Amino acid sequence: MRVLTKKQFALNLVGLVMVMALAAWWYWQSTGVQAVPALIEQLHDPDPSTRIIAADWLGTIGPKATAAVPSLLVLATQDSVQHANTTAAAALRHIDLAAARHVMAHYIPLLSRGDIQSRRTAGAIIGELGPVAKPAVPSLITLMHEPDELVRRNALAALGNIGIPAGEVSQALFTGLRDPSALVRQAAAAQFAFAVPLPPERRDEITAMLGQQDAAVAGLLRSALEKIHQADAARVETFVLMIGQSAGREYALHQLARLGPTAIAAAPVLITVLQDERPMHRYLAIEALNAIGAGGERSIVALTPLLHDPDPVVRESAADTLAAIESRSLALHNGTGESPRVKP
Questions:
Q1: Tens-digit pLDDT profile for residues 267-314
Q2: What are phi and psi of 180, to 5 degrees?
Q3: Secondary structure (3-state) at 1
Q4: I need a surface site. Which of 32, 51, 178, 335 has the fewest CB within 10 A?
Q5: The CATH classification of domain 232-334, taken from the options 1.10.645.10, 1.25.10.10, 3.20.20.70, 3.90.79.10
Q6: Distance in angstroms (rounded) separating the CA atoms of residues 186 and 184
């Protein structure tokens, strides 16, 4: 066995450090904000796989990829490959909420006119925008009586991905559970099983449906029923812990916005998220506070600066929530309504 001299060991160590530094530099250049110009070029590549991968990476970079917004808008609204459309739409929700709303506005008219494939595609792409597509909920709900089952299925999947306002979304999903198409019923049941909280007051209704559904749908509904037995306090505590982890923050905020008043304990943490650098996180924190019914001076003080937020969608959401707080306060003062549920 050869034994290295001190000089040889030192040279090898220096070489190893240089290789590691080179690898770190390459990773930094190809995955961080420095990669944005190259990724924008790839959005125009003739190979759809290259365009899709580039859009996905830009979404991962987030708000620092704003230079890519014009190209992503073209990809989301004009590309001939649906997977490219949906990936670009999903990326925009992480980069620029106003641009994501632009995509939504482009596709909403196609939900009710045009050929069947255009209507299916419009539902799928709006769904990829997630909760920022909240204004599209009424238009998606009107599709519950469309003759094409794939249009109805895509509309239900989109409603589940948007998730707010929770009451309207849940009601549409319950309608889907009674759809004559097994494909549509399965889409509705999957949302309750994996994403949309099942309202406890509908437990008996869902239980009665089990014997009327096929095995796949019944299995999904049983999973949804099992989640009802989980204590709300424990679920909220889990989501609060996830907010502290950047990887799971958006999911946790979205779930708290879906839970509404049962997520009372999360209000103080949600207020801290109002300063998050990502507009989607600020938007979801506002929507969650609104759904919870937060009120009180601390909420008002924290929300008021967001009336001047750089993102217009965040500004709009903050204005709506402050108006809701004022409405609840007036109702309390006039003795015609309930008091604010949370006063953090």
A1: 999 999 999 999 999 999 999 999 998 777 888 899 999 999 999 999
A2: -65, -20
A3: coil
A4: 335
A5: 1.25.10.10
A6: 5
